[in-house]
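A quick aside before the break. I want you to see a complete sequence-to-structure record at least once, exactly as it would be stored in a machine-readable document. Don't worry about memorizing anything.
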Amino acid sequence: MELNTFFSHDTDEEIIHAKRLQDLNIWISHLSYATNECDWLTKIASNKIGDKVLRDKLLEKNEVNSALLNELYNYKSSIGSFHECDDLECDLFYINQHDVFYAKYVKHIEEYRAIKSQVYLKILE
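That is the input. The structure line, written in tokens, reads:
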């Protein structure tokens, strides 16, 4: 993971934009990995554990994961519009939008981890 280095000549907007992109790239990376992991866990739930309910939960969560990934990619392509802001209201829109995506990401990861824990607990039975 590449960390950004900021300099005294960077504007506040440049730093905020770079931090947003860094957050977004981390979220996308986590969700991309979760897609693969969820596929593996689905196969484990179906083939090794034989729990179709758990398998269906994982399949559903993987669909939600894919939808959220698409949202984040769309957000990433629009995040450059932040530079076009010339007033506080516009700035706040993008700040709030970032916070909304962060909340969605955190909620999704928490729900995914709960289902993943169910798989591990079934394996340990």
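Two observations worth writing down. The chain has three helices and no strands. Residues 28 and 72 are 7 Å apart (CA to CA). We'll return to this after the break.
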